Amino acid sequence: MLEIGQSETLLPADSTAWRAAFAKQRALVLRDAIPVDLMRKLTMLIGRSHFVSNRIDGLGHREIESPPVAGKAIDLLLSRSSLFRWLEHTTGCESIMRVGGAIARTWPNSEDHLDWHDDLNTPESSSRRLAITIALDELEYEGGLFELRNVGSSDPLFSFKHDRLGTAVIFEISGRLEHRVAPLISGGPRLVYAGWFVG
Ligand SMILES: O=C(O)CCC(=O)C(=O)O
Ligand SMILES: [Fe+2]
């Protein structure tokens, strides 16, 4: 059990199963990582958030929270050295120094999605070690599947549909892996925090 509460972080005492899961699929599912009471507060903040169009050249489109308010609150919640050390131990990623991200929203339309990419596309992004996404809503939707694969492989190593409020996915960022988010077919929107642990 792992829980990122408002004032304390509960981390699993025995990480053996987590290490084995990450070794196999290069990703972890942290079910209910943000507890319900804290999630409720974040939902209230997000209710006042403003979103702008965010086109990522060659990859796709989505909306992101701007100015970042709820996203900054989540950055702060994740900025805990005990969590950084647990992630290093569990994933083998070295020296995580900080975390930062944004709230992203996709709708069922002809443009919202992200094609295969590795999150290492700019010089500033080259120190990204792990990515984290957290479900911030639980509206039903079809499509919107997240997939992670080895570059050049056609079989995903890991796939996940975010539909449980407060559940997080952590996955490896490296030149040997790529990930994508499929377009929504109906329902939604899909609302997640998407950030990176940076070394
Ligand atoms: O929405 C997701 O699940 C992943 C987002 C993503 O890949 C990114 O922001 O780079
Ligand atoms: Fe990404």
UniProtKB/TrEMBL annotation:
Residues 95-199 form the Fe2OG dioxygenase domain. It holds the Pfam family 2OG-FeII_Oxy_3. InterPro entries: Oxoglu/Fe-dep_dioxygenase_dom, Pro_4_hyd_alph_FE2OG_OXY. This is 2OG-Fe(II) oxygenase.
